[in-house]
Amino acid sequence: MGTHTKTTVDISGPLFQAAKRLAARQKTSLRALIEEGLRKVLQERKQQDSFRLRDASVKGNGLQPGVRNGHWEQIRELVYEDRGT
């Protein structure tokens, strides 16, 4: 995978004991169990944090025929029409 980093983490006694028992039952290491848990949490949080743009579409038939093939300048003139620009 990549390089490994050693660190110290404080875990409550009951949680630590439950994790050790689970690791033993599954014939895996506590390290592997902790890494699996961290990966799952990181993936969940990544999905929760992703931005989703709300659907702001409106009903209609798109641009009007006189504007459909127009240039930006023409569209801008129509938008600001009667606004004193």
Explain this structure.
By secondary structure, this protein is mainly alpha-helical. It has a domain at 13-49. It is 53% helix and 0% strand. The protein is built from 4 helices and no strands. Helix 1 packs across helix 2 (30-49). The longest helix has 20 residues, at 30-49. It is rod-shaped, with a radius of gyration of 29 Å. The N and C termini lie far apart (62 Å).
How are the SSEs placed, and which strands pair?
Layout: H1 13-25, H2 30-49, H3 65-68, H4 72-79
Content-based structural category:
mainly alpha
Helix content bin: 40-55%
Distance between the termini: 62 Å
If helices are DSSP runs of H or I spanning 4 or more residues, what is the number of helices?
4
SSE series? HHHH
Quick synopsis:
This protein has 85 residues and is mainly alpha-helical. It has helices at 13-25, 30-49, 65-68, 72-79.
Task: Quickly list its features.
4 helices; rod-shaped; single chain; mainly alpha; 85 residues
